[in-house]
Amino acid sequence: MIIKCLKSNLLNGVQTVYKAVPSKTTMSILECILIKADERGIVLTANDMEIGIETRIEGTVVEEGIIALEAKILFEIVRKLPDSEIIIDTDESLKASITCEKSNFTIVGRSGDDFSYLPEIDKKDPIIISHFTLKEIVRQTIFSISDNDNNIIMTGEYMEINENELKLVSLDGHRISIRKVTLKNNYEPKKVIIPGKTLNEVSKILSGDAEKDLYIYFTDKHVLFEFDKTIVVSRLIEGEYFKIDQMLSSDYETKIEINKKELLDCIDRATLLVKEGDKRPIIISVNDDNMQLKINSAVGSMNEEININKEGKTLMIGFNPKFLIDALRVIDDETINIYMVNPKAPCFIKNDDESYIYLILPVNFNTVS
Amino acid sequence: MIIKCLKSNLLNGVQTVYKAVPSKTTMSILECILIKADERGIVLTANDMEIGIETRIEGTVVEEGIIALEAKILFEIVRKLPDSEIIIDTDESLKASITCEKSNFTIVGRSGDDFSYLPEIDKKDPIIISHFTLKEIVRQTIFSISDNDNNIIMTGEYMEINENELKLVSLDGHRISIRKVTLKNNYEPKKVIIPGKTLNEVSKILSGDAEKDLYIYFTDKHVLFEFDKTIVVSRLIEGEYFKIDQMLSSDYETKIEINKKELLDCIDRATLLVKEGDKRPIIISVNDDNMQLKINSAVGSMNEEININKEGKTLMIGFNPKFLIDALRVIDDETINIYMVNPKAPCFIKNDDESYIYLILPVNFNTVS
Questions:
Q1: Closest CA to B293 of B327, B258, B333
Q2: Is residue A219 located within the same domain as residue A310?
Q3: Among A342, B196, B214, B220, which residue is least crowded by beta carbons within 10 Å?
């Protein structure tokens, strides 16, 4: 195989597929990036058996061929070469010579035959969504998936499509995050659970361009994201998702309107008294026109007041401050509404059209404070 | 004690003295910052027994007093408070209340009596040098001190002052780094060894301003740096430094002139084939009008050519690539001269007026490559 391409193109391609190279594996071939050069051009592939990424790069195929090169060393070499044309030339003994200007590296590659290729996906009926929108709704929900493998379903996000509405949901047993967006087209109903890792990696590769569309294809077992010159293939999580609708309720006893930044900054300050792993709650007293936030720990105590608009009853309620911070960080609204029932019932942070809903369970503060 | 000051002033002060707070210590009082408020104003102090920093901050003393507060928590609180006036109010039980707008923290402090105060230094005959110059010469030599405590003298830098010349030297057994600068005034001869850690911390606090002067005072056992509203006191390293002049020589068999960036980039690329801890040398062949650089490792090999101007003999010599990189990174010249004798003798990178000299020992490459 002999290929020629600009350093910038090769580097972009390697960085894109690198996200599917496992950091730890017992199958050393998975640590490689496959370079395939044929009449269709130059394609790079990486695959960790759960998620596979393939991207096409611009360049010239001088001689067709295929080789698997260790991802880390390939990335390091390409990154440090001058900003010029790179030639990769491999021989039958699988030695790969990488040349750029007066610099030449020789590394030993592996046969493409050993590589695990991506599953073939029948591409039909794609869901179309902008890069920006997908990246945003993933960011706004991904923090509340569970990283505990005991319940595999909680490690994924639930995606539901109904006509022109797409809903993305995550939950971890203490909280639920929901974002809804309107799509340009109408679709048949669809319910799938996509691994959180897949959504994370896809959103890292996405530019965030609001003008560019991304295509999502589904089969029974797989999801395929197609954008720019890249495809990402992942298995879906099998099983049935939790019945979210039963957990949501629009009843409330107390509704407060509060400046989001003031609340976030205050809780952020409070957490500095709490060491990692210490489950110290922040205790909120909702009064008629202000809210008092208190935290006590071995280090010291904090006390702060924030002005609010209140409807309904006064209330005292405790929360894990991290859960409030996670939700507040991904809400763009300047002023938010918080709905509460009593110190034992979930609280909701949501807007009027419910394009976002964050449910957070309170904690019992009598026993810990 | 009651003091009032702007968040920005308090934060700057805390950050400045924080550098003398030890990260690990069995004496918990050393983890504190001492705040002293009297008729002379507000002074913050930290002291890890090797290096002590004291800085004066702007603010109002409402009630004189003294308290030691845990540095980490004080820093975190001040950093996260709103950009407004902060009031610190302590009572007899050593409780400190830190208030800013509607936010109030309470932490428990310690008595100032437990604190280890800085040694009293008799300030006379200071050496005057600009912030910029001191910061630069430290950066340009500090990398070749030894971090091995077996030879305490190698963990410091040798400073020699003679009339209006200041020389700073570091060495670690494989290399020597020397920088010389001209001072504005003339001084009595002086030879001291300053701990590398002290120079590092001082240079981190320094703004790098070429217009501002810094005063250095010496006693038999201590050095004191005074600048802005801050003083840094450190013990000196006792003992006699190595006889540097005997190790320097101006004889050479080969002199090359080379573009510094090309050489640095090339060696930087070469090192990516070498894993941490692997002492693989880079082998340099000096030919008539170019230099060839080669490295071989288990990962692969690299080969590169750079154009040079050469005087004297051709030569093949091996180096630890890290030592070349360290020296090349701190040389600002676009074109540099390298002087060599033979594959076993030290090589010198230096300029004509010897304001910098980097001596690097070669490695024997026959046995390792």
A1: B258
A2: no
A3: B220
Task: Convert the pLDDT of each residue in B295-342 to its tens digit.
Answer: 999 889 999 999 999 999 999 999 999 999 999 999 999 999 999 999
Tell me: do A227 and A146 sit in the same domain: yes
B122 located within any domain? no
User: Does residue A121 fall inside a structural domain?
Assistant: no
A108 and B301 within 8 Å at the Cβ level: the answer is: no
- If asked whether residues B92 and B158 sit together in one domain, one would say no
Bridge-based pairing of strands A300-307 and B103-108 is: antiparallel
Which of these three, A243, A276, A292, is where a domain ends? A243
pTM here is 0.89
Interatomic CA distance for residues B322 and B126, integer angstroms: 37
Q: Which of B103, B105, B272 sits opposite A77 (nearest CB)?
A: B272
Nearest to A300 among B107, B265, B268 (CB): B107
Q: What's the pLDDT at B366?
A: 66
H helical segments located in chain A: 7-18, 71-80, 131-139, 196-205, 260-271, 321-329
Test mutation, A31, A78, A80, chain B, max B CBs within 10 A? A80
Q: How far apart are CA A159 and CA A168, in angstroms?
A: 5
Residues B107, B134, single domain; the answer is no
Q: Which residues of chain A have a pLDDT value below 70?
A: 366-369
Question: Measured between alpha carbons, how far is B252 from B347 in angstroms, rounded to an integer?
Answer: 9
d(CA A337, CA A343): 17
Q: Which residue, chain included where needed, has tokens 């490559």?
A: B369
How far is B299 from chain A, CA to nearest CA, in Å? 6
| Side-chain half-sphere CA neighbours of B62 within 13 A | 10
Q: Is A85 exposed, middle or buried (0-12, 13-18, 19+ CB in 10 A)?
A: middle
pLDDT of residue A114: 85
**What CATH number did the domain enclosing B275 receive?**
3.10.150.10
β-strand partners of B254: B312, B340
Residue B257, CB-side half-sphere exposure with 13 Å CA sphere? 8
Q: Where does the pLDDT of residue B234 fall: very low under 50, low under 70, confident under 90, or very high at 90 and above?
A: very high
Same domain for A200 and A298?
no
Which residues between 246 and 265 in chain B have a beta carbon less than 8 angstroms from any beta carbon of chain A? Answer: 265
Cβ neighbors of A342 (< 8 A, separation 6 or more) are: A253, A315, A317
What does residue B46 show for φ and ψ, rounded to 5 degrees?
A: -135, 150
pLDDT of A369? 42
Confirm whether B300 is domain-assigned: yes
- The residue of chain B nearest to residue A261, with distances taken between CA atoms, is B82
Domains contained in chain A, number? 3
Using a CB-CB cut-off of 8 Å, the residues of chain B touching A102 are 304-306
* Same-domain check for residues B96 and B11: yes
**Predicted confidence (pLDDT) per residue in A320-362, tens digit:** 999 999 999 999 999 999 999 999 999 999 999 999 999 999 9
Give the Cα separation of B71 and A344 in Å (integer).
38
B11 close to A (CB below 8 A): no
Same domain? For B97 and B189 the reply is no
Partners of A303 on chain B (C-beta within 8 Å) are: 103-106
Cβ(B5)–Cβ(B85) below 8 Å = yes
Per-chain mean pLDDT for chain B? 94
Domain boundary among B243, B263, B297: B243
**Cβ contact B300–A272 (<8 Å):** no
Contact state of B265 with A80 under an 8 Å Cβ cutoff: yes
Domain assignment of residue A282, given as a range: 248-360
Residue A356 placed within a domain? yes
Tell me, yes or no, whether B149 and B173 share the same domain: yes
Burial A251-282 (b: 16+ CB within 10 A, else e): ebebbbebebebbbbbbebbbbbbeeeeebbb
CB-CB contact of A303 with A270 (8 Å): no
Task: Find residues 290-329 of chain B whose CB sits inside 8 Å of chain A.
Answer: 299-306
